[in-house]
Amino acid sequence: MLQSMSRPAAQIARSLENREVLKRLGSGRTEPKQTVDRVRIVLGCLESLPVQQVAR
After folding, report:
1. Which end of the chain is more exposed for a tag (fewer CB within 10 A), N or C?
2. How crowded is the C-beta side of 32, counted as CA atoms within 13 Å?
3. Listed residue (3, 8, 5) closest to 50, CA to CA
């Protein structure tokens, strides 16, 4: 049986104001897909999700 060896995502500086801006960008339908994907990665890191979960 294989065990997950994922590590937590790196911590990055954050503020509530910046997080709200990122959430708006990540949920916008007019933003380029690449931008939305990157925003979701940053938000996953802010939530301290494991790297494997952020990569999904």
Report:
1. N
2. 3
3. 8
Beta carbons of 27 and 43 less than 8 angstroms apart? no
Enter the pTM of the model.
0.66
- Spatial separation of the C-alpha atoms in residues 43 and 13, rounded to whole Å: 11
- Note the pLDDT of residue 1: 45
Long-range contacts of 3-8 (CB under 8 A, 24+ apart): 4/50, 4/52, 6/50, 6/51, 6/52, 6/53, 7/50, 7/51, 8/48, 8/49, 8/50, 8/51
